[in-house]
Amino acid sequence: MSQTPSLILSEIYMMSIFQEFMEELPPFLQYRLDLFKTRRMHVVSRQSGAKVVQLAELRKECFDPADEDNAAASPLVVEMAKEAFGALLSELINKNKVTHMYLDDFGEPFDPERPHETGLAWKYVLDDHKKLTLGMWVTSDVCEAQLGKTTAQIELFHNVSIAGAAAVSDAKMNIIFQRPTKKAVEKAAKAKNPTESPKHGLGVKKKMKCMIKKGKTGIFHQFDEDIQCCLVIAGIEDAPVARGEENEKIEIQRQRKLENEKLLMEKMFDKAKEEHSEATLYFVMWGSDRHLKTTEDIDDCFKRLKSESQKREVMYENIAIRVKGQNMKDFHHNKSKNGTKFTSEELAKHLKEKLPEEQAMIKRGEIPLSRPPLNAPRRKYLPILGSITSQLKNLDAKAAKENEKVRKAVTILTKERATRKGKDSIYNKYQPFFKPFVFESFVGQRIDVQVGINNDDGKAELQWCQGEVSSIVCEEDADDDKVVPKVMVEWDPTPDLEGYEETTESVVELKRKNWKRNTKSGWRMDVDLDLLSEMVKEQQAGDEVVMDDTAGIDAMNDTWEDEDDAMEEGGEG
Q: What is the pTM of this model?
């Protein structure tokens, strides 16, 4: 069907799909024959009201339409069939799903050692197993109906226990309390067919007993009246105790719900702290050299970078500078689709297409923002009519206090990130895209070099040491990669390390292969964390919230937006 979707309009093909089963199962064949002879369907007509149409007539109209609209829809049906059967086929042959083992093309003959994985396809099912299925339910409708009734009770009455909801569902399913009404009994007594109704002329109680014999009355009403009364009285007497137990369970449930909400709120604020710290870093990077502002900058960067992974990382970072640092949601782009990462060229194309919009936003004064966005939990915006209440003021004051905690935590997280290794390190985030060229102008630059320093146990540990380049010992040669540039470094004193309390000088080799590498003799440019912290504080200086009559409006008109996962590795964003 996916290859030849026009077959959906072929009556011969569609009606013979189950031919194999009809030949092997005569009852199924008889069912199919009776289906289109005796089965009827009520169709609402605009002019004459409801009328009865046999399924045979619907089948004829389906494959040989006389109605003009139905005939005109045939091409659309073929097109939809191609999409539908293509999707169905991909689901059926997906080996990650257990249903593929039921197909003849993928099934295996029965293996006693793997009874749950083999012999499931029809052509491999043993004849003895086929006979055992006769008279069995082929669907889970009964179970699903029971669960559905239980769910309906819980949704309708909210505080009802699962056991109580299941009991009501079970009573309805098994018609435990069902009984025919007096009117129904009288109507059944007057029926002409004596096999389907009580005998005419009997009293109501005798007629009820006759209905009971035919299984039309629930088991509760089959008991004597005395037993029924005993059951009702026992239920009334036990109700207070049962109600008390249920109330205790409800109270426990409420307490756990409050605890879960509190825990969730704490997690949300922790996440907001981490995200605001990251947003602050990307916000500051807007004014750095790592921010590619034009298409020429992107093209020049791509020419100088060699590997695809480096180019992709540069694009990820520049998208994050805009999305996370400036809250420009329209610049969002997924990292991957269906498990396949987007190439650097695709990401660059997306960024280039958005650059004119960025320039327009800069001209309008919409960016850069005065501060990084804060994605903290907040109240839903609602319009305010008149003066705000004292309760709303208190809520806003509480929210402002929590937001202030988030902002203050950013400085701490900034310093924590500085101690991290790898991509999360601030030192790594603020490194230039390209290795600086070591020649005259390199004098006066501050660098970090990773060296081995003995700890208290006498074992050497790698540690980044900072210093300033005082002179060039051997300049870098652009035409000769074998020339290793050397510089004289004046090291910063390190009071906490024995032997390094005073300023010292030494010659350091700045090999190209060690640039930004977390290995011995690895080197990178130094990042002034104190300066960065000052920049962060400057961005947060205007964040102090003073509560007054308009604080509620100011808080709700804030430009901070909700969380964005555009740059997460997890999938399609």
A: 0.51
